Amino acid sequence: GLTGLLGLIPPPASHTSHSTACKPWPGLSLLLQTFQPETLIVTLSIGHSPTVALLQVYDCLQEFKEKKLVPATTHAQTLSYEVVGILRETPKSPETQELRQILQAPHFKALLSAHDTVAQKDFEPLLPPLPDNIPDSEEAMRIVCLVKNQQPLGATIKRHEMTGDILVARVIHGGLAERSGLLYAGDKLVEVNGVSVEGLDPEQVIHILAMSRGTIRFKVVPGSLMGPFCTYCQVYVRAMTEYWPQEDPTIPCMDARKISDLGTCAGLIPSNHLLKRKQREFWWSQPYQPHTHLKSIILNFSFSSSTYSVPAILCVSDKEEFVGCDQKFFIAGFRRSMRLCRRKSHLRQQHAGVCSASGCLSASGAPYEEVVRYQRRRSDKHRLIVLVGPSGVGVNELRRQLIERNPSHFQSAVPHTTRSKKSYEMDGREYHYVSKETFESLMYGHRMLEYGEYKGHLYGTSVDAVQAVLDEGKICVMDLEPQGIQIARTHELKPYVIFIKPSNISCMKQSRKNAKIITDYFVDMKFKDEDLQEMEDLAQKMETQFGQFFDHVIVNDNLQDACAQLLSAVQKAQEEPQWVPATWVSSDTES
Ligand SMILES: Nc1ncnc2c1ncn2[C@@H]1O[C@H](COP(=O)(O)OP(=O)(O)OP(=O)(O)O)[C@@H](O)[C@H]1O
Questions:
Q1: From which residue to which does any coiled coil extend (predicted)?
Q2: How many domains does the chain have?
Q3: CATH (domain of 163)
């Protein structure tokens, strides 16, 4: 069409003859090759001499060079109007007649129309405007389609106590509903497969669901938009014990069962007022009484005293010499008496069965503990770093290496003792020297994180000694027997517990070839195979009994690797969000 239109330009005078009048002017093909036809067409003046037409074309091209060459309706319209104008001026000429025919042709009209449609991008369907007064619930309505094959939906429902709405009570981790990412706890069900659930009992809705095959279509109002009626909020808990649901005869919903791994955190939707009611769907948040199906993780340690005849000490000496005494800085908390006394107190506690049931569960004795993500603010004190591990695994070696790396950043707490100060010692450096009465008042006032007796003297580390390090803006690193973790777990210390685990025995035989241990009686003793075996056994028992308190585990195989891991874990504990008991953080808010 456009080419035809251009072809109608009269040829130059020399070429004008009747036979060539309607043939395209030869120069035109050059023009067409050189320029976009649509920019040319606008300026064509039919009937003018070719030179004038060319000048007009030139002018127009100059003008369009400056413009954005995006086609727009006006261009097409301009073309039509100009052509119509020309037609009016020379209505009788045969060229005009032919042009008129071309313009009327459907394909040319379609071309212009397509051009305008694309240029305006108005090809999307036009929707009627929304009315102003839509109810909020309708606006928030969501259609969710889930394809139910052989598997259950993986969600439970309940009726809201006040509104009577049918709500999604729980979305089971890993189930179909959770994987779809479309249904959430607290969502209100409005319809299931086109059937309104208003006024229905949860059992009736479950029946509809059970009868449904293939795609199930839910109409839901998201719980997040239900304002004050939505009483659900996600709560996370840490499993403080292992649980074998398949051995639990009281479990109401086998599909919902989940083994809780020690120390793992999972989201729940507890609702205290509902606990009073016999709500099947809330069985998982019922206060739990350990009973026969809960495999006891309270192990009775029965070590021979030989376990404790191989304690290791950094400073190979038969005297109570402190580590680093002739170095530029002094590292407290590595004294041999203190370490031997700690081990003795551990032994005594194990034999006395001090680790009670509550010691293995949460502080409240519940099998789970509510946790929250805690991110230490820059202005907050550092978290206490607690290292735990079986005797000889390298807890003190790692602690010493960490402190030596940056003594102005990491520090041990100075322990207390009732023994008298020696001539070369300084009060508050090796120990805080206190009377037996003072020591006991700290003990009974629960201000001692750990304490024990060695050769008739009391030794221990107080909360205040740890606080003193934290108050200086440093990171306090201490080793603790696992029984002491519970005492240290307070909102003021917010301990981050790192378990130092031995590698397997064959690896340790290699790595500990030159390692020296010291006992009450022996100096520079090498590890024997049975020492390594006992270390491994003790580590296993510690993990089973106290694993729920461990925030991080480091296998101490290669010492340098373990050291690097420790440094990174300590940094993460201080700088990255971590799960901590909810009480630590709420106490913060109160204070
Ligand atoms: N990864 C390792 N490779 C080689 N030797 C190691 C490693 N870790 C620790 N050792 C050495 O093992 C010995 C015991 O380590 P350490 O004194 O730190 O044990 P511990 O866990 O503190 O035990 P205890 O609490 O009984 O004193 C030390 O000689 C130490 O240098």
A1: 525-576
A2: 4
A3: 2.30.42.10
Q: Which two tokens stand for residue 318?
A: 């038969």
| Token output for 98 | 């032919």
Report pLDDT digits (tens) over 496-547: 999 999 999 999 998 888 887 766 555 667 888 888 998 999 999 999 899 9
Q: Is residue 130 part of a domain?
A: no
Whether 387 and 477 have beta carbons less than 8 Å apart is answered as: yes
Cα 141 to ligand 1 centroid, rounded to whole Å:
63
Amino acid at 312: A
Q: 366 near 294, Cβ under 8 Å?
A: no
Q: Is any atom of ligand 1 closer than 6 Å to the C-beta of 313? A: yes
Tell me: do 182 and 323 sit in the same domain. Answer: no
Task: Decide if 163 contacts 150 (C-beta within 8 A).
Answer: no
Pair (327, 452) in one structural domain: yes
Residues 166-221 have pLDDT tens digits of: 998 888 878 888 888 888 888 889 999 889 998 888 899 988 888 888 888 899 98
Q: Which residues pair with 460 in a beta bridge?
A: 416, 451
CA 72/CA 38 separation, integer angstroms? 11
Write the CB contacts of 280 (distance below 8 Å, at least 6 apart in sequence).
Answer: 252, 253
CATH code, 451: 3.40.50.300
Residue type, position 28, single letter: L
Our measurement of the distance from residue 50's CA atom to the centroid of its chain's CA atoms, rounded to an integer in Å, reads 74
DSSP-based three-state secondary structure for 499 = strand
Q: Which atom in ligand 1 lies closest to the alpha carbon of residue 389? A: 21
Across-strand partners of 195? 192
State which ligand 1 atom lies nearest to the alpha carbon of 557: 1
Residues whose CB is less than 8 angstroms from the CB of residue 113 and which lie 6 or more positions away in sequence, other chains included: none
Pair 492, 546 in one domain: yes
